[in-house]
Design a protein that fits this description.
The protein is of the alpha+beta class. The chain has two helices and nine strands, in the order ααβββββββββ. A hairpin with a 2-residue loop joins β3 and β4 (71-80). The protein is elongated, with a radius of gyration of 19 Å. The N and C termini lie close together (11 Å).
Amino acid sequence: MATKTELQTLVNTNLASGTSITALEHREVENALINALYPAKIQDTSVTTNVLTNDVLGLAYVINIWKQGNNVNVNGKIINDTGGILSNVDLISITNADFYPDATLFNPFYFYGSNLLFSVTSSNKIKLIDPLGDGLVVYFNFNYKAID
């Protein structure tokens, strides 16, 4: 997954004016653009750490995350198996810099007939605002803007 800066550098290097551009150089640029437009989903669980790291002992999750340009898409589920109620706590750290958010955004999540409020914070956390009882599961689908 390339950032905007990396793509621009590749274009300027491989497709420079006044040079002979080989098919290989052109394909390299096109493939980088295709991969940026149609990225693969990355699945993280509470025991894997591709993009996310668990901050709460007893929290279980399965989360799909992928980035298109600077738009990050996230969906999955979180299960509170901590033995207590979670509220106003950082649940998950975003550890891959390609997915760092550019600002604090609040995202309400529908949960059993009420709104359960989470936020993606500028300190690279997915934070639970509202109480989530022990043994409960929340399913979600949201997006946020990344730095680049």
